[in-house]
Amino acid sequence: MAETGVVEECSDPSNMAALRAAKNALRANLKKRIAALGEQEKLRQSDVVTRMLMVHPKYQSCQRIAVFLSMPDEIGTEKIIDDIFQKGKACFIPKYQSKSNHMDMVRLATAREIRSLPLTTWNIHQPSEDDEREDALATGGLDLILMPGLGFDKNGNRLGRGKGYYDSFLERCLKHPKGKPYTIALAFKEQVCEEIPVTENDIQINEILYECGFK
To answer: Which has the closest alpha carbon to 208: 118, 48, 191?
Structure first.
């Protein structure tokens, strides 16, 4: 990917406020774009992206993969998770701490167990607090992270939902002996923007996978 195009300095409070406002305005716009998609169209694009991922060399060669459990406004990941297990790879899913921006990637035993996991306030399944599982960063690290988000640009910049879970997790990955995993965002084509406003501390993703091609 190319280097970041638009990077804002955030030491000045007025710049920080302007950046937050720009991000929030873009989030609102992107939510409207996604909401306008019909269920069949979201399923169609999800199938296209899933097929693209399954023939991707990085996906095929990686053994330890972290994947988000998709919400209705995201590319569906159910078939991807099934494929990870069918290929004998290790599958890790997010475990969020609701009162902070801390997130761990913990190992999923089977694809079927997702339905039995408790629901968070965001209506996402995840292991309970007292459910002890293999933590990716406490063991062998990760080879690949499949990234969610609201918006992405061609320079690898990502706009999340404002909680900072993935940015914080990627910072921790940089300190792991294995280093930063390869990152691929899965997106509807309506989520790809000309520019995403970012700060110099934002970590870029390696690729965006969506119907129109690789970016």
So the answer is: 191
